[in-house]
Amino acid sequence: MSNHSAPSIKEAFTQPTSVWAIAFAATVSFMGIGLVDPILPAISVELHATPAQAMLLFTSYLFITAIAMLFTSWVASRIGTRSTLLTGLALIVIFAGLAASAGSVNGIIGYRAGWGLGNALFISTALSAIVGATAGPSAGAIMLYETALGVGMAIGPLLGGLLGSISWRAPFIGTATLMAIGFIAILSMLTPEKKPAPVHPLAAIRGLKDPALRTLSATSIFYNFAFFILLAYSPFPLEAAGKARGIHVGAMGIGWVFFGWGLALAITSVIVAPVLTRKLGLIRTLLSTLAGLTVLMVLLAVFHASFTAVIVLIICGGLFLGVMNTALTETVMEATALPRSIASSAYSGVRFFGGAIAPAVAGPLAASAGAASPYILAALSLIVSAVMLVLGRQTLHRVTRPHLPATDEAEAIAAGDR
Description:
Largest sheet: none
GO molecular function: transmembrane transporter activity
Subcellular location: Cell membrane
Protein name: MFS transporter
Number of helices: 18
Oligomer: single chain
Pfam family, one: MFS_1
Membrane topology: Multi-pass membrane protein
């Protein structure tokens, strides 16, 4: 067990301008995950697309992100962290701008794929860049990164709703503008680093030969399927339930609900999850949270027509998801002897495939089997996730040892990425 002390608020926020530049860009990048959520119904209506087609904005984005994540550590080892960050930001600016100008839903789907590539390149290297740029103890910089993640996840849907109430194109324009500012800031404030150690292009894929990593990757792909059922599909039953009560939800209403979801996720991921994992242990925390999420999905299936119930359950879902994300990532970092950068890259790539599949399945399933059916499928997927974890538990013997505080885990990941 590390004796690393927790960083103070002053330590976290007393950073060089280069660290702040990366943190700003990271916040905007994390905002992009939930930014399109509030405008999915508007895109569906204005571009004459079905809900299933609109949800493919998540599928193309996550599918390309998943593939790219398997190779980002190799890219960073070839061109350097700073160049990888700038390339990722440039791609986001270009494709977010193109999405704003699209004349069809298929055009947006295609541009979101390019956006996903940029996001993978940026997010995969942002933490190591922040740690490398800090002048003081790295724990403070890591806290700043975690704050950026939480703020981005919470503000993204709210900003999407605010701008989406003007036009569905406005959130894309806003993202492109903010990322362009981040690009300029990093270009001017972050100096090139020394040439990094080489990484084999297939290192992450080869890492999946590790039994523990395979167990956790299988667990994560089914869990993330349910995660993105909740995130990508829920705006549609939410709007339908509001309409049944004579309430026009709109982009702003959806944005406020998912702001609550993102805020709940941020709070539990940073504050609650570390407490639970240290009291219950990682595996028990994972299984308990999966059980809670399964019950929540069943409740959403039962009460999907209740406007109040859907709002409450979506926000409560954020509480569970925050715990699950933190605990699962920490388990991946502890369960294998692989270099942390390789384990993280392989796990991230595989789990995003589950997220990519979910929106593609949810729309057609809801159209053919009813609005409750995607939530029922999500509950079944969570049960499978728990079964994968139980069946592969014998491969996770390393997790029984005392584990590091969250800041030490993040620092170890960053050290492996450099």
